[in-house]
Amino acid sequence: MSIRIAGMASGMDTDAMVQDLVKAYKTKGDNNTKTLKRAELKQDKWKELNKKIKSFTNKYAAEVEKMTNLFYENNLPENFVEIFKGWFTLLKQRFLNRIKETNKELTDEQLTYLSDALNLKQDYDVEVSTLYFLIVLEHGKTLKDDFKEALIDFLGKHGRINYLRPLYSDFYKRDKKLALETLEKYKNFYHAYIIKYIMLDLRLLG
User: Fold this and answer.
1) Span 36-76, pLDDT tens digits
2) For a Cys-Cys bond, which of 45, 60, 71, 150 suits 121, CB 3.0-4.6 Å?
3) CA-to-CA separations, 140 to 1, 19, 111, 137, in angstroms, rounded
4) What is residue 2's DSSP assignment?
């Protein structure tokens, strides 16, 4: 049934107006439905991606845990160097963090393996090398001269506070004099606020 209102005499066609409104409403509704379907499809894809990432992470986490235990047992596979190189940075960090968190005192043989076989003291990667130096500082029986040289060289190349603060803190515990000499040597390389925080960590400022 057609709807008529006063004004038809002026040529206003309410049927056409209603049809246009219905068409506009339907078009908007169709667009909203399409948008909702796209959002649901995107959400499904993210769920699938997260599932794959979780599966991938769990797989390698188990491998890292296994290799860490073999490291403590001095029973790493002969091809572990290649395995380690093939890991992405987060897995290398996980492996070294597990070693760092141990309460065991590491042997010279184990530390030598980290430095020479895995080449960690040669600035392999900033995050990874930082963990290596912390492992030796916290778990090594003695600090050998070549280690000290490598550490001092490393501290002179990287000026980010999140690397420097823990390294200087542990370095100071093992060799106060050399740690302070190193800080003095690189004081013009570091930002002033970094030196301030390091000195606060070492309790050298009131």
Assistant:
1) 777 777 776 776 666 666 666 667 788 999 999 999 999 99
2) 150
3) 93, 83, 7, 6
4) -
Which string of b and e fits 182-194 if b means at least 16 CB within 10 Å?
A: bbeebeeebeeeb
Question: Tokens representing 89?
Answer: 């940075």
Q: Which of 153, 95, 92, 98 is nearest to 125 (CA)?
A: 92
**pLDDT tens by residue, 140-178:** 888 999 999 999 999 999 989 999 999 999 999 999 999
Query: What three-state secondary structure class fits 204?
Result: coil
Burial bucket for residue 171 (CB in 10 Å: 0-12, 13-18, 19+): buried
Size (the chain), residues: 206
Residues 6+ apart with CB under 8 A from 147: 115, 121, 136, 140
pLDDT of residue 41: 77
- 2 pLDDT above the threshold of 60: no
